[in-house]
Design a protein that fits this description.
single chain, alpha/beta, eight-stranded mixed beta sheet, 36% helix
């Protein structure tokens, strides 16, 4: 298998065929490409943007991300550029705070995704950009490749399998006939501010709940070199029902951001003496492993396109990586065991099904965003109970479920532990 160590190969050099076409070079797509290419498959990776490119995200790397990066063999490369942290600071409406320990870091997605795409190319994948997915090529009801476009040019690439890892924007899902819900689950708005005076003052990943931010939350995450990722998000932005359809809730993200800087003093101080190095940008979120079909003959959907972002926290990098690995492993197991295509697809969908209950529990925990006084209650008790603090840390490490903290039994335990 030929390969190159160059990103952004010109679309004009696109081959006629490959084993697997991966559409989207974010965490899910690159994770799948790394896994498949290292196993010796001929992998073509395409993205609609040339790399490096910006991506709206909180940039927080929590333990599931660290675990996936370790499995992919790129953890050291990421951590060499990331800002490590040991705690998430949870701040309630009344100003109460508890610092939850965990293995954490922050790295802007421009650098993070670039590292992953480089790792995919180093593993043997070929990356072509910019190229957009326009349509699936089909024969006898099976996807056998894709039609890709760049400016006014159109290219066709045949592949044994196509993996869609195209993120939260639904156009590719629509074009592939895989979308079940076009509206996003949530929305986020973030920017980068440089303020050297805040270095050391904000050294944890801070998440803030307040009535003025409901049904969302605000955050400040420290990057390197005095830069901070600051933003607000609503993980249930399109849950309102109008005329039998999902509709956007009445919430203005820019107003919520302004309210965040008004009610949270560190946010106000960060902006007052800081310098914007990247303006506020918004993006949709697809959560709860819902909104898209997972597979059809010849094609799998993975990452945020499949809804791999958690409700409640809006964290999606780790689960995007995991689902990309799961898709690749399903294909590799099918080749190794000579499974038929239906079984390969069933195995992949079953692997996502194992993850689904955890996503549902995060959806239940989303009530904290709608009712911020619950954050006050959890923080108040966690400051008094080492056991509850360990359970909250377990949510980070995926040894505890967030929804259980807010179940009837969990609420009773808040007052008895």
């Amino acid at each position: 298998m030929s390969s190159t160590a160059t990103l952004n190969l010109p679309p004009s050099a696109l081959p006629a065929a490959c084993d697997v076409l991966v559409v989207g070079a974010g965490p899910a797509g690159s994770a799948a490409a790394i896994t498949l290419a290292r196993a010796g498959l001929d992998v073509v990776l395409v993205d609609k943007h040339s790399f490096p490119r910006d991506k709206v995200c909180g940039d927080g790397l929590i333990p599931d991300t660290h675990n996936a990066l370790r499995k992919l063999g790129v953890l050291d490369a990421v951590m060499a550029q990331a800002q490590a942290a040991s705690y998430i600071g949870c701040i309630g409406p009344r100003g109460g705070r508890v610092d939850v320990p965990g293995t954490l870091a922050v790295l802007p997605r421009r650098e993070f995704d670039h590292i992953l795409a480089n790792a995919a190319v180093a593993a043997g994948a070929r990356m072509f950009a910019p190229l957009r997915f326009a349509a699936a090529l089909e024969e006898d009801g099976r996807v056998v490749g894709a039609r890709l476009t760049e400016a006014d040019a159109t290219y066709e690439l045949r592949a044994q399998w196509v993996l869609l890892a195209t993120g939260a924007v639904p156009q590719a899902l629509i074009a592939a006939g895989m979308v079940q819900r076009q509206t996003p689950s949530g929305v986020a708005l973030r920017g980068y501010v440089k303020n050297d005076a805040m270095v050391g003052r904000i050294d944890k990943l801070e998440i803030v709940w307040h009535r003025a931010l409901s049904p969302g939350y605000g955050w400040i995450f420290p990057c390197r070199d005095g830069v901070f990722n600051i933003g607000v998000g609503i993980a249930d932005s399109h849950g309102a029902q109008r005329n039998g359809k999902l509709a956007k809730r009445e919430a203005n993200l820019r107003q919520i951001f302004d309210d965040f800087t008004r009610v949270y003093t560190p946010a106000r101080e960060l902006l007052a003496a800081g310098e914007w190095v990247s303006p506020l940008k918004g993006a949709p979120l697809r959560c709860t492993l819902e909104g898209a079909r997972y597979s059809r003959p010849g094609l799998m959907v993975t990452g945020e396109a499949a809804g791999s972002t958690y409700s409640f926290t809006g964290e999606g990098i780790g689960k995007a990586l995991e689902t990309g690995i799961l898709a690749a492993e399903a294909l590799l197991a099918g080749r190794a065991q000579t499974l038929d295509e239906a079984q390969v697809r069933a195995n992949y969908e079953a692997a996502l099904g194992v993850l689904k209950p955890r996503f549902d529990l995060y959806e239940r925990a989303n009530m904290v965003n709608r009712h911020p006084w619950l954050a006050d209650l959890l923080i108040w008790r966690a400051r008094k109970s080492a056991r509850l603090l360990r359970r909250m840390s377990g949510v980070l490490n995926e040894t505890s479920n967030p929804g259980n903290l807010l179940s009837v039994k969990g609420m009773v335990r808040l007052f008895t532990e």
